[in-house]
Amino acid sequence: MARETSCLSRIAAGTAIGGALGGAVGAVHGTYQAIRLGVPGLMKIRYIGQTTIGSAAIFGLFLGAGSLIHCGK
């Protein structure tokens, strides 16, 4: 039972770290793209938010899946 709890905590930690890292990268990339593409006014905030959440979700998913695969060894 302790191994399962340890495995679940590793998966949760991997997902959280991936989400944080993806959010940071997404915010930087979204800001750069919004300025570069000349997104008007308040649409910049929406564009940056979408990029941030999308990157956080994808990075979190892949780091969580990687932790799950690694945990099975």
TrEMBL record:
Keywords: Membrane, Transmembrane, Transmembrane helix. It comes from Brassica campestris. The chain crosses the membrane at residues 12-35, 47-69. One of its GO terms (biological process) is protein import into mitochondrial matrix. This is Reactive oxygen species modulator 1. It comes from the Eukaryota. GO terms for cellular component: TIM23 mitochondrial import inner membrane translocase complex. Pfam families: Romo1.
